[in-house]
Amino acid sequence: MENNLDKKKILEEKIANFNPNENGVTCHGIFGLPFNVEESKVVLVPVPWEATTSYKGGASEGPKAILDASQQIDLHDLVNPTAWKEGIAMADIPTDIFYKNKLVKEKVGKYLDKYFEKEIDKGLQDEINAECIELNDYVKETTGKFLKEGKIVGLVGGEHSVSLGYLEALSSKYKDFGILHIDAHSDLRQAYEGLEYSHASIFYNALKIKNVSKLVQVGVRDFCEEEYNFVENNKKKISLFTDYEIKKDLFEGKSLKKIFNDIISELPENVYISFDIDGLIPNLCSNTGTPVPGGFTLEEVTFLFETIQSKGKKIIGFDLCEVAPGKEGEWDGNVGARVLYKLCLLALKSQKKK
After folding, report:
1. What's the number of domains the chain is made of?
2. In 3-state terms, what secondary structure has residue 116?
3. Could you report the per-residue pLDDT of 188-240, keeping only the tens digit for each?
4. Would you tell me which of 6, 194, 240, 319 could form a disulfide with 155, CB atoms 3.0–4.6 Å apart?
5. pLDDT per residue as tens digits for the range 129-145
6. Sign of torsion, CA 243 244 246 251?
């Protein structure tokens, strides 16, 4: 008890000595905040992994790009202005994962050279899948530890495949939860390029988790026949709101509020948000691995997050994936940091008792 009181006092002193109007102190943590992981309510777990990316690379550099860009974000938010005082911190970026990713990505390159020549290197295929399972185990163990400590955990990728371990960890805490998936892609392939744990298979794998009762996909505008048929054959468990259908409703006079209310009504009480940055319009994420025309503005997805909270849903966790800084600057990291901050604030607010 005394230890908890000491921690509370230290936190109060940090808040009292912190100037939120001049928060961009680079020696501080994410968003320029002075908190460490232990004293923060929200803990962000970076996973610099992009071993199975199939188009452009760079997602493994996403966590650092977001951290660097986050320092200059103003903290005052109209929906939840004082939430930052509850503590938000990012765990250290694991350099061992970053460098292991490079080695596995080289293996994937060798494997694909043969794959595209219609030759499957079964040994290399099994080796890559095993490396991905090991990465999932790391994510499950790391996020599970913070969940046991009562933290709200946000995962910062990396490619989208990194979310699987966290979803498995959440299934140990929650008997029933839904996934709100915002993305340009459906990511429902049974395997992609022969790799079972590809970024393109994350939600096919996620639906194997018994406690995931519903997958609601929003803004999707690229999917293959296999994925479309999978959705059609699993309508009780999957609801798909494509970008085309959402825009069509808007063009025909339906309000965005009504569209988002209909989307959120498909979700159970406990909600996990899985956000691929390419769910946004491409000029907000031009360096992401697989950009697609169409998508949401930042204001639209913020309104979607707020709708989840206003409908009484509880955000039990979230991820932000596929942010890649690119060569020409930090714009993608800047946008990613702003999405991440909104996710942190709304997750905090959604867990308050009504």
Report:
1. 1
2. coil
3. 999 999 899 999 999 999 999 999 999 999 999 999 999 999 999 999 999 99
4. 319
5. 999 999 999 999 999 99
6. positive
Cα-flanking dihedrals φ and ψ of residue 332, to 5°?
-65, -40
Burial class of residue 2 in the structure, from the number of CB atoms within 10 Å of its CB (0-12 exposed, 13-18 middle, 19+ buried)? exposed
Q: Which residue in 58, 18, 74 sits closest to 329, CA to CA?
A: 58
What lies within 8 Å, CB to CB, of 63 at 6+ separation is 46, 47, 48, 90, 93, 156, 157, 158
- State the DSSP H helix or E strand holding residue 271, giving kind and residue range, or none if neither: strand 270-276
CA angle 43, 48, 52 (to 5 degrees): 130
Which amino acid, one-letter code, is at 249?
D
Give all strands of the β-sheet with 152-157 in edge-to-edge order.
Answer: 88-90, 42-47, 152-157, 314-321, 270-276, 177-182, 212-220, 238-242
* Integer Rg of the chain from CA: 20
| CATH code for position 300 | 3.40.800.10
- CA triplet 140, 210, 344: central angle to 5 degrees? 50
* Cβ-proximal residues to 234 (8 Å cutoff; 6+ apart), any chain: 207
Using CB atoms within 10 Å of the CB of residue 121, give its burial: 0 to 12 exposed, 13 to 18 middle, 19+ buried: middle
Residue 7 has pLDDT above 90, yes or no: no
- Domain residue limits at 57: 2-350
Which residues lie closer than 8 Å to 78 by C-beta, 6 or more apart? none
Degrees, nearest 5: CA angle 113-196-165: 125
Query: What's residue 3's pLDDT?
Result: 66
Q: Cα dihedral sign for 89, 323, 196, 175? A: positive
Contact (CB, 8 A) for 30 and 88: yes
Q: Which residue has the higher pLDDT, 6 or 275?
A: 275
